[in-house]
Design goal:
66 residues, mainly alpha, two-stranded antiparallel ribbon, 2 helices
Amino acid sequence: MPTVAYRSFVTASQQAYRQTGDDPIGPGTPTIVVNGHNIDGGLYFANFDAKVFRLLVSDLHRNPGL
């Protein structure tokens, strides 16, 4: 059980996490948004591959409407 000082924070965090539904990744880190595009789902792997991530960010920068 969390100490009293952190109880409300932990409770709010747990509730926010539950509201994400069945997403196995959940709302946790890393969360990356470039030009309004959340890099997750099918692109989630790009968060962990520096070369792919660099290419993705460069492409989103050059083509912000994609």
